[in-house]
Amino acid sequence: MIKTLSNNISFLRAMLYISALVILVVGALTYRSVTEVTKSSEMITHTYKVNVELEQILSYLKDAETGQRGYIITNDSVFLEPYLSARNRINNSFAELKVLTKNTPQLKSKLIDVNTLINKRLIAFKTSYRSLPKKDIEDPNFKSNFRNGKTLMDSIRDQIKGVIKLQNNLLNKRSDEYRSDLMATPLLLFSLLLCSLILIYLAYNSIYKNIKRLKIANEELEIFKESTNQSEIVSKHGSWTWDQNNDVFTFSDNLYRLLGEQPQSFEPTIQNFMQYVHPEDVEQLSQQVENMKKNVELPYIYYRVVHKNGNIKHLKAYGKSIINDEEETVLLGTTADITDEIISFRALEERNLELERNNQELSSFNYVASHDLQEPLRKIQTFLSRLEDEEAEKLSDRGTRYIDRIQNAATRMRLLIDDLLQFSRSNKADKVFEESNINLLLEAAKQDLAEVISAEDAVITSDAFPSMTVIPFQIQQLFVNLLGNAIKYKSEKRSPVINITHQVIEADNDPQITKPTKPFYHKITFTDNGIGFDNEYADQIFVLFSRLHNKDEYSGTGIGLSICKKIIENHKGHIIAKGKPSIGATFIIYLPID
Amino acid sequence: MKYLKTRRFTILILLVITTISLSFNSCDELIKNKDKEKQEQEQKNKSITNNKNEAKLLLMLSKDNHEVIKLSKTLQQIITKDSIADLVKTIEKTHINIAKEFSEVASDKLISIPNYTEVTMQQTIDHDNLNYKIQTLKKLRAKIDNQLYLLEKLSKTTNSKDFQNILSETDSKINKSLNKADNILNNLNTNS
Amino acid sequence: MQEDYINIILADDDEDDRMFFTDAFEDLKMTTKVQTFNDGVYLMDYLNSTEATLPNVLFLDLNMPRKSGLECLQEIKQDPKFKDIAIAIYSTSASEEDIENTFVQGANIYIKKPSSFKKLKKVLSEVVTINWQYHTNNMNKDNFLLRL
Asked: Where is the Histidine kinase domain (chain A) (predicted)?
């Protein structure tokens, strides 16, 4: 853009120079042709003057002749007047001619010829007049003289005609020369003017295009400026430039707002700006401003400003120096209001501390649960067992029954504590995902449940699983809990049969997956033939401590499925339960594939 | 930017200066031309009037010259004394010479003057009248004197070198003729 | 030192547990000599004293006041004169963390305190009759925790 414009500017300058040159040439040519026209008209006047004088001379001679004849006929001396003054008049005419023909030597020689002839003619007048005897026109001598006079007159006429002809020839020759010049001049002038017209049009075109382009660019800049202003307001930042050579600052409107002032309400100088800086930060900021002069790129600068109303704002500034076209260093900077960030950061820090404290409390609770709670319970159980073993015969039947009841309660309490521990452990943060063989984990789970499986005669069938990236002990726990659950809630009428299937599905094709994070999921389905449940409880069964059955019928704690849900959540998956009372339950697990 | 600005400024100033000087120059030329033309025209007019005067004076001179020749011829016829007749003859010869010179100059200057050959004798009254002789001589002398006056006038009018030369020459000759004429006049007066 | 006796020491702050422990060995009618200490400080004082009889098997409770079982374990394992003592961790909890730590520190076996006296006797007789030489050579993380 700038480059094409500068190119255009040099083009325009060339146009200007060429046009000026053309106009100068046109002016010079016009001047020349006008002078030539004047000259030729002068020449024509000159020629006509000469011709007129010559004709006059001839007419004087004729007058003289006529006068003489009149005198010869009438013998009246009145007729002689033109003859007497003829010489004088002719001399006057010649005097003029002499000046007129000063610059044409060939004419002069001709004129000398004419002059001698005229002299002869004048003499001839006299001789013929003298030779005239008294009234005798028939005298042969007079006749020959008279005839001689006529021939002289003729030759004078011829001579003068010759001079006029010569004169005209000269004139024609010169005007021919001028005409050829003048013929060429208008054509040249016209073409030159046409040229300059085209040049002017080209220049105009170029200027027009430039202006159009500049206008568009200006509009874009205007829009850009406005949007920058808006974005500065929205993002709470301001920008500034610092021309270091001249020590001139410019502050954007929003920078003033960051200082709590109206836009452009004070002169943008470093001193004025420093008045707003928090007194504790002034020294550090001045130091960094000094650094800005030396370094090209700078680290972030953090400082505080104090508004006139006492508000303290945290600002963060960043500058970068740029060398412009005129070899001047200009620093471009952005200053952002990070007060909100700092406030939220502090709040976050506090929350983190609180969370840490909570976590500590939780882990200490874990410890209490696992150790301190278990210890008295264990002792109760141990003493009970010693009572049963060593003092059984001393107790009555009822006493033995009570001890049995106590033993049951203690066992149940231990179960609860163990499950709770398990649940809180599944919450723990240190989860390590590993590429694991799911088949082995399932085997291990079956191993854990081997006793119950053989006792209940349960049949477990499963697909072969591919390896998955999971937290292995949690997945094993999941299998244990799900299989244990299926066996625990078996139907009275049949021995438990559990079927485990696996397939890979696309997230978009399964409506059960809400808000999928990955395009593909593993789908593992546990189907049993147990007592099942009503679908309206499908969600409720995952809630902690929630049970669908009386604890006398089934010895559940209400924690197992909550642990399962927790584990699946840790894996960013989903678990769904479906059931039909007295037919069976289905648990479906979705695990995302990376 | 600064450099550009100064350059633009200098170009502008140069343009203005050239325009001003050009227009000044052309105006000056125009005025000068007009003056020159006027002067030329004046010069022309002056030289024309000059030429006219020259021609007039030369014509008058040559006419006087003819008159002198004519009178000297007449005197030769009426004067009997040889010595005086010879003197008159030399006057005639001198003036014929002058007439020749005049006609040469005249043809050169494109001035038409009557040829001295045109001078024809009048029918003379042949009587030995002393008074008539003295009268004629006086007429001759007056003509010669008039010639001198015309010569002086012509030499003042003309600025051509040829003319000046001839005029100075002619002047001395005519002066001599005048002296001779005076001598003759004295002679005649004493004789009588 | 009497070779016929198997010297056994238990360090546990719980009085009931110490009682269960000694009662169990009495019931077992084995040729054992059982000593108990109330906490780790007493234990280490005794072991470091000159007249001490070094035990064949040392049972350490983890959670004790003043000096915990884990600290005792570290001290014992640092001192070469105790290198022949087999150390059994005897704790209420069986958390992964404790098992891992004690295994790394060089304990020989981890016993979770059973909740019935019958079971306790069984466990203790098992532990005392282990061929420690063999057990130590084949020890790994899986058989470190005693399962019955």
From this structure: 368-594
Residue B113: Cβ-neighbour burial (10 angstroms; 0-12, 13-18, 19+) = buried
| Residue A514 in tokens | 């809400």
What's the CA gap between A170 and A178, in Å, rounded?
A: 12
Whether residue A115 lies within 8 A of chain B, CB to CB, comes out as yes
Q: Give bridge partners of residue C32 from the DSSP assignment.
A: C6
- What digits encode the pLDDT tens for the residues C88-125? 999 887 777 888 888 888 888 899 888 888 888 888 88
Chain C residue whose CA is closest to A384: C116
| A326, closest residue in chain B (CA to CA) | B1
Structure tokens at B57: 């004076």
* Percent of chain B residues topping a pLDDT of 90: 2
Supply the ipTM of this predicted assembly.
Answer: 0.81
Q: By CA distance, what is A119's nearest residue in B? A: B112
Neighbours of A172 (CB within 10 A): 12
C147 to chain A, any CB pair closer than 8 A? The answer is no
Sheet holding A574-580, edge to edge: A459-462, A497-506, A520-528, A584-592, A574-580
Query: How many angstroms away from the CA of A116 is the closest CA of chain B?
Result: 7
Helical axes A105-130 vs A81-100, angle rounded to 10°:
170
| Runs of H (alpha helix) within A75-104 | 81-100
| Phi and psi angles of residue C85, each rounded to the nearest 5 degrees, phi first | -80, 130
Residue C114 touches chain A, beta carbons under 8 Å: yes
A 409-428 residues inside an 8 A Cβ radius of C: 410, 414
Chain A contact for C92 (CB, 8 A cutoff): yes
* Chain B residues with beta carbon closer than 8 angstroms to that of A99: 44, 47-48, 51
**What's the CATH fold of domain C6-144?**
Rossmann fold (3.40.50)
> How deeply is A285 buried, as exposed, middle or buried, from its count of CB atoms within 10 A (0-12, 13-18, 19+)?
buried
User: A489 near A496, Cβ under 8 Å?
Assistant: no
Q: Does C14 touch chain A (CB under 8 A)?
A: yes
Q: How confident is the model at residue A216 (pLDDT cuts 50, 70, 90)?
A: very high
**Domains observed in chain A:** 2-203 (1.20.120), 237-337 (3.30.450.20), 431-592 (3.30.565.10)
Task: Evaluate if residue A152 carries a pLDDT over 90.
Answer: no
Smallest CA–CA distance, residue A362 to chain C, in Å, is: 15
Are B115 and A112 an interchain contact pair (Cβ–Cβ within 8 Å)? no
Q: Do A375 and C92 touch (CB under 8 A)?
A: yes
For chain A, what percent of residues have pLDDT higher than 90?
9
Would you list the DSSP string of B121-185?
A: ---------HHHHHHHHHHHHHHHHHHHHHHHHHHHH---HHHHHHHHHHHHHHHHHHHHHHHHH
**Contacting residues of A for C93, CB less than 8 Å apart:** 370-371, 374
Query: Shortest Cα distance from B122 to chain A (angstroms)?
Result: 12
Residue B114 has pLDDT above 80, yes or no: no
Chain B contact partners (≥3 CB pairs within 8 A): A
Q: Look up the pTM and report it.
A: 0.46
Residue-wise pLDDT for A476-494, tens only, equals: 889 999 998 888 888 888 8
Residue B109: which residues within 8 A CB-CB, separation 6 or more?
A: A98, B51, B54, B55, B58, B160, B162, B163
Domain ranges of chain C: 6-144
A382, A431, A432, best to mutate vs chain C, most C CBs in 10 Å:
A382
A:B CB pairs within 8 Å: 64
Domains of chain B: 53-191 (1.20.1260.10)
- The candidate with the shortest Cα–Cα distance to B150, out of B174, B122, B126, B176, is B174
Asked if A117 reaches chain B (Cβ–Cβ under 8 Å), the answer is no
Is B109's CB within 8 Å of A130's CB? no
